[in-house]
Amino acid sequence: MENVTIDRDGAVVTVQGKVIAENRNGNMILQDRQGKLWPLNSEVIQSRTRDNVPFTLMDSTELEKTILEELPGFSIHKTKHFLICYNTSRAYAQWCGGLFERLFRAYNNFWKRRGLEVSEPEMPLVALIFKDKQSYRRYAAHELGPAVDSVNGYYNTITNRIAMHDLTAASRGSERSIQKPAEINELLLQPMAGQLVATVIHEATHQLSFNCNVQQRFSDIDVWLNEGLAMYFETPDLRSKKGWRGMGDINTERLARFSNYLKHRPADSLYSLIASGDRMQGRSEDQRFDHEEAILDAYSEAWALTYYLLTYEQKTFVEYLKFLGEKKPGITESSERKIEDFEKFFGDLEEVDRQFVKRMQKEIKRNAKKWSGQR
Domains in the chain and their CATH numbers? Predict the structure, then answer.
């Protein structure tokens, strides 16, 4: 293991782990035994040594102990692949765990049937569930900043954790957490339950993508693809007793938004969507997913493009996904390179745009009645 001593806001900290990326300037990305990634600039590194202890990720027992020390008063609910740390009701934690595992099976089967080999996670996948918005906010504020008030759950690529709060109380207009599974089943009969299910599935899909070898953490992430896949899988099915049973159905909320966006959609919209990279890069194209007024349109177009490619260009899309999954962490790519990579698989961008809009307009006409009452 590498033992790296760093200056962290004036405090001296030693981080132990495995170097997964390093450049000639001495900047590195270190993975610690909890699975957390540490992007370290050479300027903060004070010393560095290597010992003879083999690097291993924490097992379930060690990880559980570490998290409970970090979050006193929390409990643990274990499933086959997830470690759910919660201070809400056990019933809600168990319901989330069941939903996570159903997604895990469906997600893996979905890609295997399409020729994309997915892997088992290297360690248990951690989900933190807070009893209310206030306790969630105290934990998440330093990670999300001002966005914490508008985000009910998120996956953090650095910590590799999901964090969210119990969404059932707000959905019912109550301060009391659900205590019995039967109460959740009753809630799933209500129209507002769709957003509850979608939030849980959306963030868990992000986590699976980065832990089952579909995407690489800290590679120059294609934001449209990252979010598009999560929205593709998130679509709730309230006809099911569990609120969700698959993926790939029309996401009527996203389609309705995309329909409105088409009325003023700029000619370079597809270019700016595909050219968007990791939010940390700060390029002008990336503002589509950061600017408050534009983000909902960007998300709707990201879902629409993912849906279109998986429906009409499925084999090519899977090959494109394999290609992107091989990109290494810590390497920033230009907007031009992102466009070149996309066109290498799907052809001329303008022609793709014409076919994309044409197909989605047909979907809009076919599904207009489903959201006509929401406008």
Answer: 2-50 (2.30.30.520), 60-214 (3.40.30.160), 252-374 (no CATH)
